[in-house]
Protein backbone atom coordinates (compact mmCIF):
# COMPACT_ATOMS: atom_id res chain seq x y z
CA UNK A 1 0.00 0.00 0.00
CA UNK A 2 1.40 3.45 -0.93
CA UNK A 3 1.65 6.33 1.54
CA UNK A 4 -1.60 8.04 0.57
CA UNK A 5 -3.61 4.80 0.59
CA UNK A 6 -2.49 4.19 4.17
CA UNK A 7 -3.56 7.71 5.12
CA UNK A 8 -6.96 7.19 3.46
CA UNK A 9 -7.42 3.94 5.41
CA UNK A 10 -6.62 5.78 8.66
CA UNK A 11 -9.06 8.57 7.79
CA UNK A 12 -11.86 6.06 7.07
CA UNK A 13 -11.41 4.39 10.47
CA UNK A 14 -12.71 7.48 12.33
CA UNK A 15 -14.49 9.80 9.90
CA UNK A 16 -14.02 13.53 10.45
CA UNK A 17 -15.88 16.51 8.98
CA UNK A 18 -13.81 18.55 6.56
CA UNK A 19 -14.94 21.80 4.93
CA UNK A 20 -14.21 22.66 1.29
CA UNK A 21 -14.96 26.38 0.90
CA UNK A 22 -14.09 26.68 -2.80
CA UNK A 23 -17.56 26.12 -4.29
CA UNK A 24 -16.51 28.22 -7.29
CA UNK A 25 -14.16 25.49 -8.54
CA UNK A 26 -15.26 22.27 -10.26
CA UNK A 27 -12.37 20.31 -8.72
CA UNK A 28 -14.05 20.77 -5.32
CA UNK A 29 -17.10 18.78 -6.47
CA UNK A 30 -15.05 16.15 -8.24
CA UNK A 31 -13.01 15.61 -5.07
CA UNK A 32 -16.06 15.73 -2.78
CA UNK A 33 -17.82 13.06 -4.85
CA UNK A 34 -14.74 10.79 -4.65
CA UNK A 35 -14.30 11.39 -0.90
CA UNK A 36 -17.96 10.60 -0.21
CA UNK A 37 -17.89 7.46 -2.36
CA UNK A 38 -14.68 6.21 -0.70
CA UNK A 39 -15.96 7.16 2.80
CA UNK A 40 -12.82 9.12 3.68
CA UNK A 41 -14.53 12.04 5.44
CA UNK A 42 -17.82 13.86 5.85
CA UNK A 43 -17.65 16.79 3.45
CA UNK A 44 -19.18 20.23 3.81
CA UNK A 45 -19.15 22.56 0.79
CA UNK A 46 -19.82 26.25 1.42
CA UNK A 47 -21.71 27.85 -1.44
CA UNK A 48 -24.88 29.55 -2.58
CA UNK A 49 -27.51 27.54 -4.51
CA UNK A 50 -26.40 29.43 -7.65
CA UNK A 51 -22.74 28.47 -7.18
CA UNK A 52 -23.62 24.86 -6.49
CA UNK A 53 -25.86 24.70 -9.55
CA UNK A 54 -23.28 26.36 -11.80
CA UNK A 55 -20.05 24.64 -10.75
CA UNK A 56 -21.39 21.40 -9.25
CA UNK A 57 -23.52 20.47 -12.25
CA UNK A 58 -23.12 16.82 -13.22
CA UNK A 59 -21.53 15.74 -9.92
CA UNK A 60 -23.23 13.38 -7.48
CA UNK A 61 -23.46 15.24 -4.18
CA UNK A 62 -25.16 12.43 -2.25
CA UNK A 63 -23.96 12.46 1.36
CA UNK A 64 -22.33 15.90 1.04
CA UNK A 65 -23.56 18.77 3.20
CA UNK A 66 -23.97 22.14 1.52
CA UNK A 67 -23.97 25.28 3.67
CA UNK A 68 -25.33 28.46 2.09
CA UNK A 69 -23.41 31.34 3.74
CA UNK A 70 -26.29 33.73 3.08
CA UNK A 71 -28.96 31.47 4.52
CA UNK A 72 -27.55 29.35 7.32
CA UNK A 73 -29.27 29.01 10.72
CA UNK A 74 -25.82 28.88 12.39
CA UNK A 75 -24.59 32.10 10.82
CA UNK A 76 -25.24 34.41 13.79
CA UNK A 77 -23.24 32.05 16.02
CA UNK A 78 -20.29 32.36 13.63
CA UNK A 79 -20.59 36.16 13.43
CA UNK A 80 -20.59 36.37 17.25
CA UNK A 81 -17.53 34.12 17.43
CA UNK A 82 -15.71 36.18 14.79
CA UNK A 83 -16.38 39.40 16.75
CA UNK A 84 -15.27 37.75 20.01
CA UNK A 85 -12.04 36.42 18.49
CA UNK A 86 -11.13 39.69 16.77
CA UNK A 87 -12.38 42.05 19.54
CA UNK A 88 -8.87 43.46 20.06
CA UNK A 89 -8.71 44.31 16.35
CA UNK A 90 -12.03 46.18 16.63
CA UNK A 91 -13.95 43.95 14.18
CA UNK A 92 -17.68 44.78 14.19
CA UNK A 93 -20.55 42.36 13.48
CA UNK A 94 -21.13 44.04 10.11
CA UNK A 95 -17.48 43.65 9.14
CA UNK A 96 -17.47 40.03 10.31
CA UNK A 97 -20.54 39.22 8.23
CA UNK A 98 -19.15 40.97 5.17
CA UNK A 99 -15.82 39.15 5.46
CA UNK A 100 -17.51 35.75 5.88
CA UNK A 101 -19.77 36.31 2.88
CA UNK A 102 -16.94 37.61 0.71
CA UNK A 103 -14.36 35.00 1.68
CA UNK A 104 -15.72 31.55 2.58
CA UNK A 105 -12.38 30.58 4.12
CA UNK A 106 -13.37 32.74 7.10
CA UNK A 107 -16.73 30.94 7.24
CA UNK A 108 -14.99 27.56 7.19
CA UNK A 109 -12.58 28.49 10.00
CA UNK A 110 -15.49 29.70 12.14
CA UNK A 111 -17.33 26.41 11.58
CA UNK A 112 -14.24 24.67 12.99
CA UNK A 113 -13.88 27.10 15.87
CA UNK A 114 -17.57 26.56 16.83
CA UNK A 115 -17.19 22.77 16.75
CA UNK A 116 -19.26 22.22 13.58
CA UNK A 117 -16.31 20.89 11.55
CA UNK A 118 -12.91 19.34 12.21
CA UNK A 119 -10.74 20.84 9.47
CA UNK A 120 -10.54 22.84 6.23
CA UNK A 121 -8.89 22.27 2.86
CA UNK A 122 -8.66 25.17 0.40
CA UNK A 123 -6.27 26.81 -2.03
CA UNK A 124 -7.19 25.29 -5.42
CA UNK A 125 -8.16 28.78 -6.55
CA UNK A 126 -6.72 30.99 -3.80
CA UNK A 127 -3.12 31.94 -3.02
CA UNK A 128 -1.32 30.39 -0.05
CA UNK A 129 -1.37 33.71 1.81
CA UNK A 130 -5.14 34.13 1.37
CA UNK A 131 -5.73 30.53 2.40
CA UNK A 132 -3.59 30.66 5.52
CA UNK A 133 -4.39 34.17 6.83
CA UNK A 134 -7.96 33.46 8.09
CA UNK A 135 -6.68 30.38 9.94
CA UNK A 136 -3.85 32.36 11.54
CA UNK A 137 -6.27 35.09 12.59
CA UNK A 138 -9.15 32.93 13.86
CA UNK A 139 -7.80 29.50 14.83
CA UNK A 140 -4.34 30.59 16.04
CA UNK A 141 -1.53 28.30 17.14
CA UNK A 142 -1.70 25.30 19.45
CA UNK A 143 -0.91 26.12 23.10
CA UNK A 144 2.84 26.53 23.60
CA UNK A 145 3.55 26.97 19.88
CA UNK A 146 4.63 30.38 18.59
CA UNK A 147 4.46 29.92 14.80
CA UNK A 148 2.68 27.95 12.13
CA UNK A 149 4.85 26.38 9.45
CA UNK A 150 4.16 24.15 6.46
CA UNK A 151 5.64 20.81 5.51
CA UNK A 152 5.52 18.55 2.49
CA UNK A 153 5.42 14.80 2.87
CA UNK A 154 7.74 13.79 0.04
CA UNK A 155 7.42 10.32 -1.45
CA UNK A 156 10.47 9.76 -3.66
CA UNK A 157 10.27 6.75 -5.99
CA UNK A 158 13.07 4.15 -6.03
CA UNK A 159 14.88 5.85 -3.17
CA UNK A 160 16.70 4.08 -0.33
CA UNK A 161 17.23 7.30 1.63
CA UNK A 162 14.95 8.69 4.33
CA UNK A 163 12.32 6.14 5.40
CA UNK A 164 12.28 4.12 2.16
CA UNK A 165 11.93 7.35 0.19
CA UNK A 166 9.55 9.12 2.60
CA UNK A 167 10.62 12.49 4.02
CA UNK A 168 9.19 15.54 5.72
CA UNK A 169 10.50 18.84 4.27
CA UNK A 170 9.79 22.07 6.25
CA UNK A 171 9.17 25.00 6.28
CA UNK A 172 8.33 25.08 2.59
CA UNK A 173 5.22 27.26 2.74
CA UNK A 174 4.70 29.83 5.45
CA UNK A 175 7.50 31.86 7.08
CA UNK A 176 9.64 33.88 4.68
CA UNK A 177 12.26 34.41 7.42
CA UNK A 178 13.02 32.24 10.45
CA UNK A 179 15.29 33.07 13.38
CA UNK A 180 17.04 30.37 15.42
CA UNK A 181 14.16 30.02 17.91
CA UNK A 182 11.60 29.58 15.13
CA UNK A 183 13.81 27.15 13.22
CA UNK A 184 14.18 25.03 16.39
CA UNK A 185 10.39 24.99 16.77
CA UNK A 186 9.91 24.00 13.11
CA UNK A 187 12.33 21.12 13.77
CA UNK A 188 10.28 19.87 16.72
CA UNK A 189 6.93 20.20 14.91
CA UNK A 190 8.35 18.47 11.84
CA UNK A 191 9.60 15.57 13.94
CA UNK A 192 6.08 15.18 15.36
CA UNK A 193 4.57 15.38 11.86
CA UNK A 194 6.96 12.74 10.52
CA UNK A 195 6.12 10.39 13.40
CA UNK A 196 2.38 10.82 13.06
CA UNK A 197 2.23 10.45 9.26
CA UNK A 198 5.02 7.97 8.56
CA UNK A 199 4.94 6.09 11.87
CA UNK A 200 8.74 5.79 12.10
CA UNK A 201 11.31 7.55 14.28
CA UNK A 202 12.18 11.00 12.91
CA UNK A 203 15.83 11.85 12.29
CA UNK A 204 15.95 15.60 11.91
CA UNK A 205 18.63 17.51 9.98
CA UNK A 206 18.84 21.29 10.24
CA UNK A 207 20.23 22.24 6.85
CA UNK A 208 22.76 24.82 5.80
CA UNK A 209 25.46 25.40 3.18
CA UNK A 210 27.95 24.41 5.90
CA UNK A 211 28.56 21.18 7.81
CA UNK A 212 29.78 21.38 11.40
CA UNK A 213 31.53 24.72 10.99
CA UNK A 214 32.99 24.18 7.52
CA UNK A 215 31.87 27.71 6.57
CA UNK A 216 31.50 30.88 8.60
CA UNK A 217 28.59 33.26 8.00
CA UNK A 218 25.71 34.75 9.99
CA UNK A 219 23.32 32.32 8.22
CA UNK A 220 25.43 29.39 9.43
CA UNK A 221 25.53 30.77 12.97
CA UNK A 222 21.71 30.96 12.93
CA UNK A 223 21.40 27.26 12.14
CA UNK A 224 24.03 26.35 14.75
CA UNK A 225 22.04 28.32 17.35
CA UNK A 226 18.82 26.62 16.25
CA UNK A 227 20.45 23.20 16.76
CA UNK A 228 21.61 24.20 20.25
CA UNK A 229 18.15 25.48 21.22
CA UNK A 230 16.42 22.39 19.80
CA UNK A 231 18.80 19.95 21.49
CA UNK A 232 18.25 21.67 24.84
CA UNK A 233 14.47 22.03 24.48
CA UNK A 234 13.70 18.68 22.85
CA UNK A 235 16.37 16.24 24.09
CA UNK A 236 14.33 13.19 23.04
CA UNK A 237 14.40 14.07 19.34
CA UNK A 238 17.24 12.70 17.20
CA UNK A 239 18.37 15.96 15.67
CA UNK A 240 21.62 17.36 14.30
CA UNK A 241 23.10 20.24 12.30
CA UNK A 242 24.26 22.32 10.81
CA UNK A 243 24.43 19.87 7.91
CA UNK A 244 24.68 20.21 4.16
CA UNK A 245 22.10 18.18 2.29
CA UNK A 246 24.57 15.50 1.15
CA UNK A 247 25.90 15.08 4.69
CA UNK A 248 22.31 14.73 5.93
CA UNK A 249 21.36 12.03 3.43
CA UNK A 250 24.41 10.11 2.20
CA UNK A 251 26.19 7.85 4.73
CA UNK A 252 29.59 8.01 3.01
CA UNK A 253 29.51 11.84 2.94
CA UNK A 254 28.29 11.92 6.54
CA UNK A 255 31.26 9.79 7.63
CA UNK A 256 33.62 12.34 6.13
CA UNK A 257 31.87 15.55 7.11
CA UNK A 258 30.00 14.72 10.34
CA UNK A 259 31.57 11.61 11.84
CA UNK A 260 29.80 10.28 14.94
CA UNK A 261 26.48 11.98 14.15
CA UNK A 262 23.43 9.74 14.74
CA UNK A 263 21.42 11.73 12.18
CA UNK A 264 23.87 12.58 9.40
CA UNK A 265 23.62 10.12 6.53
CA UNK A 266 20.20 8.89 7.73
CA UNK A 267 18.02 12.00 7.97
CA UNK A 268 14.34 11.67 7.07
CA UNK A 269 13.13 15.08 8.26
CA UNK A 270 14.76 18.07 6.58
CA UNK A 271 14.46 21.53 8.10
CA UNK A 272 15.42 24.32 5.73
CA UNK A 273 17.01 27.60 6.87
CA UNK A 274 14.59 29.81 4.87
CA UNK A 275 11.37 29.64 2.88
CA UNK A 276 13.34 30.22 -0.32
CA UNK A 277 15.47 27.13 0.28
CA UNK A 278 12.51 25.02 1.42
CA UNK A 279 10.14 25.99 -1.35
CA UNK A 280 12.74 25.63 -4.10
CA UNK A 281 14.05 22.42 -2.54
CA UNK A 282 10.73 20.57 -2.48
CA UNK A 283 9.92 21.62 -6.06
CA UNK A 284 13.33 20.39 -7.28
CA UNK A 285 12.74 16.97 -5.77
CA UNK A 286 9.14 16.89 -7.01
CA UNK A 287 10.07 17.77 -10.59
CA UNK A 288 13.49 16.17 -11.07
CA UNK A 289 13.00 13.01 -8.98
CA UNK A 290 9.30 12.76 -9.94
CA UNK A 291 8.41 12.61 -6.26
CA UNK A 292 4.90 12.92 -4.89
CA UNK A 293 4.72 16.09 -2.79
CA UNK A 294 1.76 15.99 -0.38
CA UNK A 295 1.05 19.38 1.13
CA UNK A 296 1.75 21.98 2.17
CA UNK A 297 0.35 20.58 5.39
CA UNK A 298 0.26 23.18 8.14
CA UNK A 299 1.73 22.32 11.51
CA UNK A 300 1.31 24.20 14.77
CA UNK A 301 -2.29 25.40 14.17
CA UNK A 302 -4.90 24.71 16.86
CA UNK A 303 -7.05 22.89 14.26
CA UNK A 304 -6.07 21.40 10.90
CA UNK A 305 -6.29 23.70 7.89
CA UNK A 306 -4.42 22.80 4.74
CA UNK A 307 -3.53 24.50 1.54
CA UNK A 308 -3.59 23.20 -2.05
CA UNK A 309 -1.51 24.04 -5.04
CA UNK A 310 -3.46 26.02 -7.63
CA UNK A 311 -2.34 23.48 -10.20
CA UNK A 312 -3.81 20.60 -8.18
CA UNK A 313 -6.02 17.81 -9.52
CA UNK A 314 -9.15 16.54 -7.78
CA UNK A 315 -7.15 13.49 -6.60
CA UNK A 316 -4.68 15.82 -4.87
CA UNK A 317 -7.60 17.39 -2.98
CA UNK A 318 -8.75 13.90 -1.95
CA UNK A 319 -5.24 13.16 -0.59
CA UNK A 320 -4.97 16.43 1.33
CA UNK A 321 -8.47 15.92 2.79
CA UNK A 322 -7.38 12.47 4.03
CA UNK A 323 -4.26 13.98 5.64
CA UNK A 324 -6.36 16.74 7.23
CA UNK A 325 -8.77 14.15 8.62
CA UNK A 326 -5.86 12.21 10.13
CA UNK A 327 -4.54 15.42 11.72
CA UNK A 328 -8.03 16.04 13.13
CA UNK A 329 -8.04 12.53 14.65
CA UNK A 330 -4.83 13.41 16.46
CA UNK A 331 -6.00 16.77 17.87
N1 LIG B 1 2.37 31.62 12.73
C1 LIG B 1 1.38 32.08 13.51
N2 LIG B 1 0.75 33.26 13.30
C2 LIG B 1 1.18 33.99 12.25
C3 LIG B 1 2.22 33.60 11.40
C4 LIG B 1 2.82 32.33 11.67
N3 LIG B 1 3.80 31.83 10.92
N4 LIG B 1 2.41 34.54 10.45
C5 LIG B 1 1.51 35.52 10.69
N5 LIG B 1 0.76 35.19 11.79
C6 LIG B 1 -0.37 35.92 12.35
C7 LIG B 1 0.00 37.32 12.80
O1 LIG B 1 0.42 37.31 14.13
C8 LIG B 1 -1.31 38.04 12.60
O2 LIG B 1 -2.17 37.79 13.68
P1 LIG B 1 -3.17 38.95 14.20
O3 LIG B 1 -3.94 39.42 12.99
O4 LIG B 1 -4.03 38.25 15.21
O5 LIG B 1 -2.30 40.02 14.77
C9 LIG B 1 -1.94 37.37 11.38
O6 LIG B 1 -1.31 36.09 11.30
C10 LIG B 1 -1.69 38.11 10.10
O7 LIG B 1 -0.30 38.41 10.10
P2 LIG B 1 0.44 39.45 9.15
O8 LIG B 1 1.75 39.79 9.74
O9 LIG B 1 -0.50 40.53 8.77
O10 LIG B 1 0.80 38.51 8.02
P3 LIG B 1 0.32 38.45 6.59
O11 LIG B 1 -1.13 38.22 6.52
O12 LIG B 1 0.90 39.59 5.83
O13 LIG B 1 1.12 37.15 6.16
C11 LIG B 1 1.35 34.90 5.65
C12 LIG B 1 1.03 35.89 6.78
C13 LIG B 1 0.16 34.91 4.73
C14 LIG B 1 1.52 33.51 6.19
C15 LIG B 1 2.65 35.39 4.97
O14 LIG B 1 3.72 35.18 5.81
C16 LIG B 1 2.91 34.74 3.64
O15 LIG B 1 2.35 35.14 2.63
N6 LIG B 1 3.81 33.73 3.63
C17 LIG B 1 4.29 33.12 2.40
C18 LIG B 1 3.23 32.24 1.79
C19 LIG B 1 3.70 31.79 0.46
O16 LIG B 1 3.57 32.51 -0.51
N7 LIG B 1 4.28 30.57 0.42
C20 LIG B 1 4.91 30.03 -0.75
C21 LIG B 1 3.99 29.35 -1.66
S1 LIG B 1 3.36 27.82 -0.99
C22 LIG B 1 3.68 26.64 -2.19
O17 LIG B 1 4.48 26.81 -3.03
C23 LIG B 1 2.92 25.41 -2.07
Describe the structure.
This protein is an alpha/beta fold and 331 residues long. It folds into two domains: 3-140 and 301-330, Rossmann fold, CATH 3.40.50.10950; 149-292, Isocitrate/Isopropylmalate dehydrogenase-like (Rossmann fold, 3-Layer(aba) Sandwich), CATH 3.40.50.10750. Helices cover 45% and strands 16% of the residues. It has helices at residues 3-13, 26-38, 49-55, 75-85, 93-102, 104-113, 128-138, 180-198, 218-233, 245-249, 251-257, 275-288, 314-329; strands at 17-20, 42-46, 65-67, 119-122, 149-155, 166-170, 203-207, 238-243, 269-271, 292-299, 305-307. The strands form two sheets. The protein has a six-stranded mixed sheet with strand order 8-7-9-6-5-10, with helices on both faces. Strands 3-2-1-4-11 form a five-stranded parallel sheet, sandwiched between helices. Strand 2, helix 3 and strand 3 form a beta-alpha-beta unit. The longest helix is centred in the middle third of the chain and has 19 residues, at 180-198. The model has no long low-confidence stretch (mean pLDDT 96). The structure holds acetyl coenzyme *A. Acetyl coenzyme *A binds next to helix 7.
Amino acid sequence: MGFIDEIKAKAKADKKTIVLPESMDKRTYDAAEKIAKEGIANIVIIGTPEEIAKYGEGYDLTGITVVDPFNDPNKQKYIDKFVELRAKKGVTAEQAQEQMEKDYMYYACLMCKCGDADGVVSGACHSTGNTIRPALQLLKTKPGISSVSGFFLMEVPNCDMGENGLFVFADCAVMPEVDAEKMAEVAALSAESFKSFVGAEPKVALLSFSTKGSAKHDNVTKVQEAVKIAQEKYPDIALDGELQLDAALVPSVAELKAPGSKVAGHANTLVFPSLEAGNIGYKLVQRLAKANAYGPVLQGLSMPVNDLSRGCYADDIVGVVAMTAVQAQQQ
